[in-house]
Design goal:
single chain, about 80 residues, mainly alpha, binds calcium ion
Length: about 80
């Protein structure tokens, strides 16, 4: 497999692939899709955006546009969900 560990040392296009069981859309691993959960409180959301809160779970929950990071790009989605109920 190209780019896999051992690709160049074992032989051309050799190596292994690793698969992990992920819970897509379930940042806090509570088996409830994040889309079905309540929004995090606005103070918690802002603290993530400001870098006051840095834990992975909070950052994942604040990444509402699913671009891999919590930043100003998530504010619009937060506000829309907030007012949509
Ligand atoms: Ca969840
Ligand atoms: Ca984001």
């Amino acid at each position: 497999m190209i780019g896999a560990p051992g690709d160049d040392t074992i032989g051309t296009n050799a190596g292994v692939a690793r698969a992990f069981a992920l819970h897509p859309g379930d940042c806090d691993n509570d088996n409830v899709p994040d889309i079905c959960q309540s929004l995090m409180p606005v103070t918690d959301f802002v603290n993530v955006l400001l870098g006051v809160t840095t834990d992975e779970t909070s950052a994942c929950l604040a990444d509402l546009n699913h671009d891999g990071g919590a930043d100003g790009g998530d504010i619009q989605e937060y506000v829309e969900r907030l007012f949509d109920g």
